[in-house]
Amino acid sequence: MINSLRGMNDIMSEDYERFTYFINTATKIAQNYGFHFIETPLLEETALFKRSVGESSDIVGKEMYQFIDKGENDVCLRPEGTAGVVRAFIQRKLDRAGGLHRFFYHGAMFRYERPQKGRLRQFHQFGVESFGEASVYEDATMIMMVADILDACGIGYRLQLNSLGDHNCMPQYRENLVGYVKNIADQVCTDCVRRIDTNPIRVLDCKNENCQSLYKDAPKLIDNLCGECDEDFATLQKILDDAGIKYEIDTNLVRGLDYYSKTAFEFVSDNIGSQSAIAGGGRYDKLVEFLDGRATPAVGFAMGIERLMELIVMPETKREGYYIGAMDEEALPLVIQLAQKKRKTDKTTLDYKAKNLKNHLKAADKMNAKYCCIIGEDELRSETIWIKDLENKTDEKIASVDF
Ligand code: HAM
């Protein structure tokens, strides 16, 4: 027997209902915020992710589904959605058009991680990217949108917030941090020693407990922000306070992708185990330029749909549509005909086998149909159809031409 690959799941039945319910809810909210759908390819040039997510990140360094295709191109399955949207934005010359461009997307992402609960190798994200707005109000809007989506799905959360500074304050901070870590280099883990040269900021979210205790007194990003970053971070907090959105400032929140500057945020849930991040995002003002576009401020987020599916409170399912059945073989052609007519306007299921009334009613109930419609011997003769409303428990007979 051939099974699906490790960390790659089928989405079906009840899961599929949750999956589509989430996408429909999030889509409606993104559209209310003025965002437009974008679909980008699952496969892109490997260089796109190397240059955006960053060579020193775990995603690019260890987790890419990368291969050489038949035309000798170095390609990989997308590990995240932002890079592809930025590429499309530049390729369509929207960076040169000016103005605001706001997109949302959903689809499969691929990371060769060690699978565990909530961590898959093929997973789905719902994400948004906003281009052309430098104001920190847009950062706040992103956070409000995630909060609205989570609220609409009945999902509780904790919001963690940080500022990563910009090209004015980050280099000096990085130097201070490197100095601090170099002084204790003989006590930190080997990963952190490597990070000193590759991506020093990532030491801050090292999972090693010993390292974490050693970094307690390390210089903090938010104590070293330049005037503009400091002011923006204060404004962001004020907007969130006014909107009644609670947050915690986590000075170690650096995110696993290299393109961020200024605002970085993560929404976590305490109800799904160790893989608790349900959404993450932030500002990435340098990425468009870095991918050869015209400098354009940008901010966005993505939500992990599989993690959210565990948490969604689904609305009560209502009985819907018609179930049609025959009690005699003879009536089956008519049943098929009537079902075909009804499907033009309503959800309609039918049974190809003749059954007694009790079994039909049971089947209709299982399908969660609102109406159970039966053609028995009498009905066939009188060209009528018996209809039971399974919600109101009433029944009637109508002429089959009126069905
Ligand atoms: P990210 O934090 O890497 O950000 O991923 C966003 C969300 O995807 C996570 O919070 C998590 O819910 C989900 N996720 C990530 N990896 C897995 C996995 N292996 N299995 C299941 N779910 C997972 C990004 O991808 C950025 N592109 C977000 C962004 C958009 N920033 C700006 N714009």
The fold-level CATH name of the largest domain is BirA Bifunctional Protein, domain 2
Task: Let me know the number of strands.
Answer: 16
Portion of residues within helices: 25-40%
What coarse outline follows from CA principal-axis ratios?
elongated
List the total number of helices.
15
- Level-2 CATH architecture of the largest domain: 2-Layer Sandwich
Q: How many domains comprise the coordinates?
A: 2
Largest beta-sheet details: 8 strands, mixed
Identify the CATH homologous superfamily of the largest domain.
Bira Bifunctional Protein, Domain 2
Going across the biggest sheet, name each strand in turn.
Answer: 1-5-6-11-10-9-7-8
Short description:
36% of the residues lie in helices and 22% in strands.
Q: How would you sum up this structure, described in words?
A:
By secondary structure, the chain is an alpha+beta fold. The protein has two domains: 13-169 and 225-311, Bira Bifunctional Protein, Domain 2 (BirA Bifunctional Protein, domain 2, 2-Layer Sandwich); 322-402, 3-Layer(aba) Sandwich (Rossmann fold). Helix content is 36%, strand content 22%. It is built from 15 helices and 16 strands. The protein has an eight-stranded mixed beta sheet with strand order 1-5-6-11-10-9-7-8, with helices on both faces. β15 and β16 form a beta hairpin. α1 (13-32) packs antiparallel against α6 (136-152) and α6 runs parallel beside α10. The radius of gyration is 28 Å and the shape is elongated. The two termini are 46 Å apart. The mean pLDDT is 96. Bound molecules: histidyl-adenosine monophosphate.
